[in-house]
Amino acid sequence: MTDNKRLRVGLVDSDVCKRCGSCSETSLHALRNCNVVKPLWQKLVNNTAQPVFFNLNNLQEWVNFNLQNKIGMNPNLPWGSMFGTACWMIWKQRNDWIFNDKKDEANSLMKPIELNVMNWLKSAKLNSSRGILYHESFVTWKPTMEGWIKVNTDGSYNHCTKKMSCGAVIRNDKGLEMAWKYGMKKVTMETDSIEALDFAQDLYDKNHPLRYLAEKIEEYKDRNWQVVFKHTFRETNRVADFLAKYARNRSYEDCLLSSPPDECIELVKNDAQGLGFWRV
């Protein structure tokens, strides 16, 4: 979380960037505009594209511009992979600077970024020769069809405290028991757990100790409504993942939130705007 967001939720007293000390640390500042970071991008992005690259002031537009255009200085390396790797390494270096007092310049990431992408390309080529094909895909949370609502679910378990919890978020185009209670008759249930999905679709060992839960799910599925179960990637299930962890630290057994917690608002906005991730 950037200091600009941390300030909004009262975690810090100032949002000034701890690396350059001159500006508010927004997401764009941390990843692109900071004086510590900018020289790296000037080496990675071709000169023709730099005016647009450095002047897009909306994070989503900036990300989309990079994912939709080939603007790398090195034409032999896919820019989508270069861009994603660079952002990840810049953020990791930023955290090391702030939390571990490792004050390295972003320029030092130039070679590691290229090597990381080249190694991935070699691995993909090797596996392709063995008949194993990989491709990049852009994954994002997708709204439902008109008239349907979508329930994203996730669970959380802390091995130290032995606490277990689950979270769900209900959204439409504009949990089963809860959806039924509020009169929702067309429901898409999404989870990133293949095991949970199999359980809900009656694909489980009938001697399973939790089979009573599957039987309860079957009871709900047989009611007068339409319910579809789907798998989703972890990257597109971040709101439910947050709520599952959020619930683990609360004392009540269950709770219905009419609006998202402050720390979760940005994740909800990202889903609504279609902000996603590249996944191999």
Automatic annotation (TrEMBL):
Pfam families xrefs: RVT_3
Domain of life: Eukaryota
Annotated ranges, domain RNase H type-1: 175-247
InterPro entries the UniProt entry points to: RNase_H-like, RNase_H-like_dom_plant, RNaseH-like_sf, RNaseH_domain, RNaseH_sf
GO terms for MF: nucleic acid binding; RNA-DNA hybrid ribonuclease activity
Record-given protein name: Ribonuclease H
Organism, scientific name: Senna tora
Organism ancestry: Eukaryota, Viridiplantae, Streptophyta, Embryophyta, Tracheophyta
